[in-house]
Amino acid sequence: MGGITPHIFYFIWYLYIMRKNLIEDIQRLMVLMDIKESVESKKLDLKAIEFYKNVVPESTDVITVAETWNGGGYIWGGGSGLSIPLMWTNPETGQEEVLKDKQDEGTYCSGYVLQVGYIVAKNRGLLDNKTKEELIKFINEWYQASPKTCVTAITNIGIGTEITFENAQEGDFCQFWRTANNGGHNVIFKSFVYKNDEIVGINYRSTQKLTDGIGDRTEYFTDGGGKVDKSKTYFARLND
């Protein structure tokens, strides 16, 4: 009982070394996992950037950009509704970053119309001085700022103005609501349908089941025998 014997001392020392090595191994493993995650993330970003560059038109005209895509299937929910990723150029690094990625399959109205608006705004230089945070807010409002959605998003970020119903023009962005089940639709306005000099319907481009994805469609207002509510039809126009 006169102290620690050499055997006990060496055994304690061995346990200490093993514990130290184990901690170092765990730390190295964590670093490697962080590196792998970073690399995989960058691979995804690079893949999205390359895809973006290959499919995005350079036009500043809303209808020209909108007609870049057709069909592709309609899938609501579970994704962004985008057929391309929305990119942002970091002014400090000059690198492209993905703000919102594309949906794996199909599109739905808010995503498709947003991507058209985003691309046109970017091509017109309207987003040049916007921060990443401002653009993320803009994207979120386009999806969520009911009842005017795209109108609220465009006016709040300062890249366009709200337009009255009577002054709507081809290429304006529109959110309307139907009387049946309060269903809404986000669309790109093309023209009104007239009957006896009265506006009874709306021609638009969006993505929906009836066109199996992106395509043109006509719907009618309630006073034209349809279900679209004129009083809940909102328009916005991007600045030149």
List keywords for this structure.
single chain, alpha+beta, seven-stranded antiparallel β-sheet, elongated
Q: Care to describe what's here?
A:
The chain has a seven-stranded antiparallel sheet with strand order 1-8-7-6-5-9-4. A two-stranded antiparallel sheet has the order 2-3. 38% of the residues lie in helices and 26% in strands. The protein is elongated, with a radius of gyration of 27 Å. The protein is α+β, with helices and mostly antiparallel strands and 240 residues long. The protein has helices at 6-55, 62-66, 109-123, 132-144, 150-157, and strands spanning 71-72, 86-89, 96-100, 160-163, 173-178, 184-195, 198-208, 213-220, 228-238. The model has no long low-confidence stretch (mean pLDDT 87). The chain is built from five helices and nine strands. The N and C termini lie far apart (92 Å).
Map the helices and strands.
Blueprint: H1 6-55, H2 62-66, E1 71-72, E2 86-89, E3 96-100, H3 109-123, H4 132-144, H5 150-157, E4 160-163, E5 173-178, E6 184-195, E7 198-208, E8 213-220, E9 228-238
Antiparallel strand pairs: 1-8, 2-3, 4-9, 5-6, 5-9, 6-7, 7-8
Helix pairs in contact: 4-5
| Estimated share of beta-strand residues | 25-35%
Average pLDDT number = 87
User: What is the count of structural domains?
Assistant: 2
Helix content: 25-40%
The major beta sheet can be summarized as: 7 strands, antiparallel
Shape: elongated
Determine Rg (CA atoms, Å): 27 Å
| pLDDT < 50 runs, ≥5 residues | none
Biggest sheet, spatial arrangement of strands: 1-8-7-6-5-9-4
Total helices: the number is 5
Count of DSSP strands: 9
